[in-house]
Amino acid sequence: MSATRRQVLGWAALGGAALVPGVAACGPGSPGSSSTGASGPPPSPSATGQATDAQSLAALALWTAYQGEQAGSYGIGGVLVDNATGRVLQTMPNRVFRTLPSPGEGAERASAATSSSGPPAPPPTFVQDPTAHGERQLASWYLANRARLGLPPAEDLTVVTSLDPCLMCTGAILTAGFRAGIVALDDFSGVNYTGKGTFADLPEPLRARALDSFGYYRVDGVRDFQGSKAVAYSDTPVEQGTYQQCSDVYSQSADRVRAARGTAAKPPSQLTNPATDPESVNVRRAFEVVYPAAFEVSVPDGRRPTKAVYDALVGLVASTPGSTNAVGFLDPFGNLIVAATDQPSVSPLNTAFALCARAYAQTRYALTERTITAPVAAATLTNPGYGTFVFLRAPDPYTPEGIFDYGAYGSTLAAPASPFIPSAFQYYELPPGVSERDLQDVVPALPPLYSQHLAMLPQRVVERS
Ligand SMILES: [Zn+2]
């Protein structure tokens, strides 16, 4: 057993995942238990974590990353720590994917397919919340609990993450006001994907804030400290082995997740329209629970929202006290299947887009999870990239909440949208002081996931009556 692995398991033994009293620790299992046979105890929800240096935080982030990987999601983990005391307030693994209960009638649980030779296939997994990255969950947890738990000001806290934050999590970290201490890099979707630490991918006002608050720990033999010294334990290094494991646990999980994702959805040509199919009553009912007007509006071409969609979104904002924006999702058949307003009084991260994307994924997951509804879910629902997200008002990419939405859109699509124009990212109204051109011009600088792989294209709706 390596020194690093001992340290990682040591955290488990010490109850390193825990936290503020009353906060449940997250995720099953212990790091690496399936591959090594080693088995540490599950985290104790009542113990408190205490860091002493960057290495102990990196080891805890790695341990948390293993929790995500063991649960069938991406192997990425985040730790929220008080800079002054080293007290660990919370940890969160990535929870985008969740293991389905068992392979059953769901025809699309193809990732469970076993071969006659080789190791047994991992249990099937499915997207349950595309926004459930560790750092985003830490930001949401902090914003929801800071008053009740008397948590320190955000600028005195650091999110230590096993992997460089994506655009969504960068937006979440900047919205909350945290520092961010980073272990491994990600040259595909990380905000520091170039490794230069310039944040040239971010629009100007956000770049300055990232330079002020993001720091990349020194790894002996790999790199010097880079970025803001305001992060927790910025003068101490992370061991090379821990750094490498943070990178490896992510890469391995990403390969598996991408393989599963490729088999998890049908193209629209193989789907049945849930609005008209008599067998789809459970699908309609499930979406009506989260959006009572589900399926009431339908447009002939799902990529060409009409005034009826605009009216539905305006009506939703008008009937939701405190809301300022709404986002709807048109499925490939043009059904307005789900819509949500923002909840600024609850959390600035409860954007209309995040809630809409989450509602679609969670409803689809719930239908897929149940043996009785899995077949109809697989026959009528697909990856959101085949549909269209329609914003009443586009996100402002010069604000943390706006770049959060850009990133959340990228995380939700993950695989490229169907290549039909118009785009899967449309809006009716512009943010104040922002032009159509501005919304598109920020995209080419973004990390490759957003600029190249997804080729994000915010487009204004060409209104039709
Ligand atoms: Zn993220």
Structure description:
A hairpin with a 4-residue loop joins β2 and β3 (87-93). The protein folds into two domains: 3-96 and 131-261, Cytidine Deaminase, domain 2, CATH 3.40.140.10; 268-460, no CATH class. The chain has helices spanning 3-13, 33-36, 54-70, 134-149, 167-176, 204-213, 240-261, 281-290, 307-318, 352-369, 374-380, 400-413, 436-441, 448-453, and strands at 49-50, 77-82, 87-93, 97-99, 125-127, 157-163, 179-184, 214-216, 226-227, 326-330, 336-341, 388-393, 425-429, 459-460. α4 packs parallel to α5. The strands form three sheets. A seven-stranded mixed β-sheet has the order 1-3-2-6-7-8-9. It has a five-stranded mixed β-sheet with strand order 11-10-12-13-14, sandwiched between helices. The chain has a two-stranded antiparallel sheet with strand order 4-5. By secondary structure, the protein is α/β, with parallel strands linked by helices. The longest helix has 22 residues, at 240-261. It is built from 14 helices and 14 strands. Helix content is 35%, strand content 14%. It is globular, with a radius of gyration of 22 Å. The chain binds zinc ion (ZN). Zinc ion binds next to α4 and α5.
Largest sheet: 7 strands, mixed
Percent range of helical residues: 25-40%
- Ligands bound to this protein structure: zinc ion
Overall spatial form: globular
Order of helices and strands: HHEHEEEEHEHEHEEHHHEEHHEHEHHE
Class inferred from helices and paired strands: alpha/beta
Number of separate helices: 14
The N- to C-terminal Cα distance equals: 67 Å
CATH architectural group of the largest domain = 3-Layer(aba) Sandwich
| Total number of domains | 2
Nearest-angstrom radius of gyration? Answer: 22 Å
CATH topology of the largest domain: Cytidine Deaminase, domain 2
CATH class bucket of the largest domain: Alpha Beta
Fourth CATH level, the homologous superfamily of the largest domain: Cytidine Deaminase, domain 2
Report the β-strand fraction as a percent range.
5-15%
Poorly predicted regions: 1-48, 104-116
Mean pLDDT: 87
Q: Count the E strands.
A: 14
> Could you give the order of strands across the largest sheet?
1-3-2-6-7-8-9
